[in-house]
Design goal:
2% strand, mainly alpha, Methane Monooxygenase Hydroxylase, Chain G, domain 1, 396 residues, two-stranded antiparallel sheet, 2 domains, elongated, binds protoporphyrin IX containing FE
């Protein structure tokens, strides 16, 4: 039993078929178990004809496709997806090789309200464990990387709730710090996940053994990215915390693309909060307008909690960029861009933005707590303190 299995029941009870993880994992609507078990051997042999026959065999007819429930449709995309990525890895454009799969993927996309191919959720969270686990290579390290992503899914679903709560609160409300603290507890899963990845997955295995399976495929004239870990929706947390109004054009562009690969309710969350005032901006404004040397305790607590969550995000990103740099080093890399379509430079810029926001909140709090120097001129009680924070817009 994994950590994931201990926390998953909390989200399974919700009315959202995409959270019915045990059901999706158990589902085999295309009768694909035996076929997908043979995929690692086909990939080892770069056997394009066998992969093509396997994909053709799995493609359901129109009536069968139309009768699938959302749970079954998600499982079907998962299984077709394994063959799509495998064919592409060996140089075949999958829908050119098996054109009859195109209308099926389009219909499954419509039924599931997701992109017309598999995503990181199909490849990890919705992927069965044990004998039925779907893998490109069958290597233990691939299983570890899948588990690393599996373990963050319930935490990010929970963070979505706490971030939603946070978005409706002001920093003078004690619930603001409380929502941040709970968000921080959830986001810690990202740090655990990247530590697990660094310990269990070598950059060389990722770069040479796995990355080629995550290439984009052509679906009716449009490229769709493979099931990359970059699609893990950490942006849900960034969005409310700082990204909605303190981002960079590069990160915005990356998110606009990544959001397409997420669940419908998460896309709705993005649309609802995009461009709104972030928690950091609310805090900055509130702190800037305080004229007393000490912040009101509630506001100080909000700042401490915000800095704590940002520090956790920063820790994840600092460790993550370490393994990403190695995997995309000149010696190892086969591709310039990550499987999520962005270069390492993006990771650097997102890490810098996270760090800038953390520093901003931490320093603001410390500055307000610092004793007023004896020689300092008295500050007018009616005028706000000089406020570099209030107007400051962070740049990457
Ligand atoms: C060998 C392991 C890994 C490597 C080499 C790697 C590499 C990368 C690269 C190059 C990017 C830039 C965007 C892109 O891919 O196009 C990226 C983004 C990202 N990756 Fe990874 N990654 C790894 C594991 C993970 C894991 C285990 C997680 C989470 C559980 C994760 C979460 C993310 C997220 C959330 C982003 C978006 C940028 C951000 O929020 O900072 N990655 N990764």
């Amino acid at each position: 039993m994994t950590l994931y299995d201990l926390v998953a029941p909390a989200i399974e009870g919700r009315y959202e078929p995409r959270y019915r993880i045990a059901g999706i994992r158990a589902a085999d609507p295309l009768g694909a178990d035996a076929t997908v078990a043979a995929v690692p051997a086909m990939n080892r042999d770069a056997d394009i004809p066998a992969l093509t026959v396997a994909l053709r065999r799995l493609v359901p007819d129109h009536d069968r496709t139309a009768s699938l429930s959302v749970v079954d449709a998600l499982a079907a995309v998962r299984d077709l997806g394994l063959l799509l990525g495998s064919l592409k890895r060996h140089g075949a454009e999958p829908l050119a090789a098996v054109p009859e799969a195109l209308p099926v993927l389009q219909e499954l996309a419509r039924r599931t309200d997701m992109v017309p191919r598999d995503t990181v959720h199909h490849y990890t969270t919705w992927n069965p464990l044990g004998d039925r686990q779907r893998m490109y290579t069958g290597e233990q390290m691939e299983g570890h990387l899948q588990n690393a992503v599996r373990m963050v899914f319930p935490a990010l679903v929970a963070a979505l709730d706490t971030c939603d709560e946070l978005a409706g609160l002001e920093p003078y409300d004690p619930r603001f710090a409380d929502a941040l603290d709970r968000t921080g507890q959830h986001v810690q899963a990202m740090v655990d996940s990247i530590d697990f990845t660094v310990a269990q997955v070598s950059p060389e295995f990722f770069a040479r053994g796995l990355r080629p399976y995550f290439e984009e495929i052509d679906v009716a004239g449009r490229d769709y990215l493979g099931p990359a870990a970059a699609q893990v929706p950490l942006w849900l947390v960034d969005l409310t915390l700082w990204q909605s109004d303190r981002s960079s054009p590069e990160y915005d562009a990356f998110l606009d693309e990544s959001v397409l690969y997420s669940l419908p309710s998460w896309r709705a969350f993005h649309a609802a909060h995009r461009g709104s005032t972030s928690a950091v901006s609310k805090l900055s404004a509130a702190i800037s307008w305080e004229s007393t040397p000490r912040l009101p305790p509630v506001l100080a607590a909000s700042a401490v909690s915000a800095a704590r969550v940002l520090r956790i995000l920063k820790t994840f990103r600092a460790r993550h960029i370490g393994i990403a740099r190695k995997a995309y080093s000149d010696e190892l890399r086969l591709y310039d861009a990550g499987s999520g379509g962005a270069p390492i430079a993006l990771l650097r810029s997102v890490l810098d933005l996270t760090r800038d926001n953390e520093t901003l909140v931490r320093h603001a709090n410390v500055r307000m707590h610092a004793p007023v120097p004896v020689s300092a001129p008295p500050r007018s009680a009616s005028r706000p303190a000089p406020a570099p924070l209030r107007e400051k817009r962070l740049t990457p």
